[in-house]
């Protein structure tokens, strides 16, 4: 081929690059170059044998590099005189044979790379052959480094590093066998780092790594023992956190509850030791450190998402489960329910509104028919309420339309009316006949205290 042609190792149509088992030189279009011996290690002697020459060569020029650059020139050889002239890349170990082959004594790792032979024939034409030689280092026993050797199951992360000073293929072994597929998924791209998140007890054992190249295979070494101590193995969880109601798992479900009834939610989990519990309502923590939560007097304000969080104090792991609690369909229609249902004189009573409209604009309470003189109070769109002509100073309004009447007296008994208006302009009117019972009186006597109604 012409010396003016621009070729590289990857550009040769017939080139062959050694990447694993043997050190093989690439083959040029006409000139072939074969290393002998084929597998090379530091300190070896090698001859790059040249075949395919015409026999009319006047000179040989060897380069140790990817291009025909003066800086890569190893040596030039004149066939007729046997004169050899070293170049800038000559290390003192190279010698050109009369047949064009190149001898290298006492190989070094730095001798790895691309080699180019350029010939000049009697017609003053040049031919070029390309190749690549790999000198594989003699490998040392690897060591295994670990971030920790005693880990907590399902909490800690295991990181192992196969340490070797030489670039080489790495294989891992677990308890003397090849690494299981599930564990291999945690290997880094170069195979040297093994990572396992939330380590499991079945992953405790002996880990070893092996380094190898085509010349050397080091038996598995650098053993390191991963332990999950017995006292720590028994510390598990929390697992399978669930919310239970009446012995039925309700996690992820919607629980329908009748108005003004009670509900108890239990939090269960598999955990050792027993977990610590935190309950939350619509994302806000509740002051409850027990494994159950009581919801009493179910009303619209208590509708929402209830979450139980279980935390293991030893493993520091946590799990959670949630349910949605809503008023039942029967409770959706709006009605007024007094709490307590049978108030007595001197008590406070709340006229709780069940199923009040969520798109409420304004509401008004009346003591008697819905007329202005009878208006107790009204709530404005701003959320504030204002007193009406019938307000006694003992009535308080709430955002859920409920009305609190404090320190009842017998004259508070009678009809109460609520009028609501939604954003869409829908108007509803409800009424309730409130009964107030006589309160309990206390009279002193010479012998003690007597009670009477």
UniProtKB/TrEMBL annotation:
Keywords: Glycoprotein, Immunoglobulin domain, Signal. Pfam families: Ig_3, V-set. It comes from the Eukaryota. Residues 142-219, 238-324 form the Ig-like domain. The keyword Cytoplasm does not apply. Belongs to the immunoglobulin superfamily. CEA family. This is Carcinoembryonic antigen-related cell adhesion molecule 16 isoform X6. The gene is Ceacam16.
């Amino acid at each position: 081929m012409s010396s003016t042609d621009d070729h590289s190792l990857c550009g040769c149509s017939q080139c062959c690059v050694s990447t694993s088992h043997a050190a093989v030189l690439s083959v040029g279009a006409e000139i072939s170059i074969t290393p002998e011996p084929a597998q090379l290690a530091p300190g070896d002697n090698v001859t790059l044998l040249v075949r395919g020459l015409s026999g009319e060569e006047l000179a040989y020029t060897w380069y140790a590099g990817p291009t025909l650059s003066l800086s890569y020139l190893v040596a030039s050889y004149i066939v007729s005189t046997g004169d050899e002239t070293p170049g800038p890349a000559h290390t003192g170990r190279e010698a050109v044979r009369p047949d064009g082959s190149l001898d290298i004594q006492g190989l070094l790792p730095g001798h790895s790379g691309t080699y180019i032979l350029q010939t000049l024939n009697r017609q003053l034409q040049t031919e070029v052959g390309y190749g690549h030689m790999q000198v594989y280092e003699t490998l040392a026993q690897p060591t295994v480094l670990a971030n920790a050797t005693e880990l907590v199951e399902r909490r800690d992360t295991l990181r192992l590093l196969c340490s070797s000073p030489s670039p080489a293929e790495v294989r891992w072994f677990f308890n003397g066998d090849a690494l299981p597929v599930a564990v291999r998924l945690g290997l880094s791209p170069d195979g040297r780092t093994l990572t396992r998140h939330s380590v499991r007890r079945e992953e405790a054992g002996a880990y070893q790594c092996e380094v190898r190249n085509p010349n050397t295979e080091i038996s598995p070494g650098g053993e390191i023992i991963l332990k999950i101590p017995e006292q720590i193995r028994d510390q598990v969880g929390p697992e399978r956190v669930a919310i239970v109601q009446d012995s039925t798992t309700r996690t992820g479900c919607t629980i329908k509850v009748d108005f003004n009834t009670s509900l108890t939610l239990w939090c269960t989990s598999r955990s050792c030791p027993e977990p610590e519990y935190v309950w939350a309502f619509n994302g806000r923590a509740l002051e409850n450190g027990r494994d159950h939560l009581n919801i009493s007097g179910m009303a619209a304000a208590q509708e929402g998402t209830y979450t139980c969080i279980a935390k293991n104090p030893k493993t520091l792991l946590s799990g959670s489960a949630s349910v949605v609690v809503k008023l039942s369909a029967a409770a959706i229609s709006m009605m007024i329910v007094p709490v307590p249902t049978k108030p007595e004189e001197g008590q406070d009573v709340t006229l709780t509104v069940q199923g009040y409209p969520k798109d409420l604009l304004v509401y008004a309470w009346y003591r008697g028919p819905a007329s202005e003189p009878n208006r107790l109070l009204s709530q404005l769109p701003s959320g504030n309420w204002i007193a009406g002509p019938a307000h006694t100073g003992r009535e308080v309004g709430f955002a859920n339309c409920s009305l609190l009447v404090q320190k009842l007296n017998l004259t508070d008994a009678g009809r109460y009316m609520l009028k609501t208006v939604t954003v869409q302009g829908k108007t509803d009117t409800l009424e309730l006949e409130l009964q107030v019972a006589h309160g309990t009186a206390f009279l002193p006597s010479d012998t003690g205290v007597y009670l009477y109604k």
